[in-house]
Design goal:
Membrane topology: Single-pass type II membrane protein
Main location: endoplasmic reticulum
Number of helices: 21
Bound molecules: 1-deoxymannojirimycin
Strand order of the largest sheet: 3-4-5
Shape: globular
Keywords: Calcium, Disulfide bond, Endoplasmic reticulum, Glycosidase, Hydrolase, Membrane, Metal-binding, Signal-anchor, Transmembrane, Transmembrane helix
Cofactor: Ca(2+)
Subcellular location: Endoplasmic reticulum membrane
Amino acid sequence: MYPPSRKDFISLTLSDAHSHSYNNGKHRRQSCWRKWKQLSRLQRSLILLLLALILIFGLLSYPSIPPEWKTFSDRDEWLELNDREVKDDLPDVQSVLDLPAAKVPPPAAGSHVGPAVGPDPAVVEPKGPNIPIFPKPPIKSFPNKRGPPGMRKDGNISDTVVEKKQVQEVVEEEEGGEEDKEKKIVSWRGAVIQADQATEPPPSANGKEAAAPPAPADSADPLPLDVSGRTEARLEAVRDAFRHAWKGYKDYAWGHDELKPISRTFGEWFGLGLTIIDSLDTMWILGLREEFAEARDWVEKELSFDKNVDVNLFETTIRVLGGLLSTYNLTGDQLFLDKAKDIGARLMPAFKTPSKIPFSDVNIGKGTAHPPRWTSDSTLAEVTSIQLEFRELSRLTQDPQYQEVVNEVMKLVHKLPGKHDGLVPMFINTNSGQFTHKGVFTLGARADSYYEYLLKQWIQGGKTEDDLLEDYLQAVEGVKKHLVRQTGSGRLTFVGELSHTRFNPKMDHLVCFLPGTLALGAHNGLPGDHMDLAVQLMETCHQMYKQMETGLSPEIAHFNLQASDGQDIFVKPADRHNLLRPETVESLFYMYRFTKDTKYRDWGWDILESFNNHTKVPGGGYTSINNVRDIENPAPRDKMESFFLGETLKYFYLLFSDDMELLNLDKYVFNTEAHAFPIWPSPPK
Ligand code: DMJ
């Protein structure tokens, strides 16, 4: 027995490599095996050891191989395949890098509304004695938002980054730092992630380009250049986001209710061009005059309410009636008031019920109304969050019928039994006028805007309607007593739910309107401890974004009351979606206006970046997503809600703007869809 010579071994290998015949191959495999057996045990051990060392070395050195040298993993190939499928369906998909440069915006200076009166810079001091003052929660950061920090600093590929071949691209500056984060482009299966041009210096003023940064209304000293430059860059980022969303809507969904940006088509809900109407005042405020003009044109020539269609009273009131009234107030254009009167009158049949509690649905063509098919109940928030709009319609038309029907609802609810320290059940029956499903209390879905509108109606009416104030103050006490808790570990304050005396530590993202509303109340002279609670809840809502891998909040969060395992927030798989909702940004706007604490702006900026990173779709539009915990594939839901343009982007803009006269909160009150109405100069008749 003797080992094969090196020459034999090489010739064996080469001949194997070139053989395509099964028999030859088989024969050679056998002779190879024979030769292997002919080796001494020592020789075989040495060869095996050598192979093992090569394998270990290979595994250890794999992460440092430059990305372009790596081969695709199965998952990479799968992603690439899926991208291809999406592209095949959508022949015009453009890389975001190929998009034409964003249009230079018209000056936003014309968007000032309301008389120029100095702002109220008062920062509300804690005054009230009632609420337990919880210690401020430590700010916990979630370091893995964009991949392991070590890898990011090294300039290595982060876990959000995939090779160019996969239509996933990264543009990253050599140097680290905050600004550089904003230059990243990552895309995934059709939804993208665009380099944020906003962090670039704003275009120089040449008449057509962006206006100079508005002077801060609350300060005699001009802001330092870098601060004002950043402000303008952030405002421009919001305009860019709006233009991108609008482009998608215009290209694929024009005149329909909502854009489906991935499939590049539209969704219809009521068939009223919801996105256009919801966006009108946002375009006005952002100074997007061209876009506003085309939308106005559509309202004038195409919008008709004379349609045999069932609409939801609440949604149509807050989005359509609210959007038209707000735009009329901002522009003075009679077209919008005429349209508002038309839809307002068509919604009135909803109030013809035995109890005067309105039905949920109205056929605006036939003039008939009905409850949902499965019940004669209406949702409490829906019947008590239409008041600002109907009252404003009465003021503008001098026709009291609108305000009478909605005031009647508030009167009924005010004296109705079944409340729990000011907290209200979620349903009310349209026949009996009584609460149903008693014993369940939440500030989330189905009840949220009841609380919001108690305060806002009181403000709208010049703070004269005492029943509204009484109900609001009682409700806040009820919230503090029954629903507010802190997590065991990070001391995060949250608002849970009560189900027949059982506390459920669950909070909808919708509840994140509450910090803003509490702050607004405190600003209007209500107890200072409302502001303390607002500050704490704002922190929690911020953490609901910050602790998620995508930097975006889930629809629902669960909180941990135990200190033991150190984790404050849990998200159930079914609750991991994000619908581009506005509530946290809305509250950040109020908190910034009343405290001038710039951390609220920075938190808002992080959220805008996350929307751009994980929900922006190439070719136009933003999409809601299914999984805020999966940075690689957040799973687009293919829907851009009208409130993303009507509310979320508007509140971003107002949050970043230094112009405190832009919808001054001492002169305007926002409806629950972010449409602004003037605070009445005198009490209602
Ligand atoms: C909007 O239509 C309104 O803000 C409403 O009050 C709640 N739902 C959406 C936004 O989340």
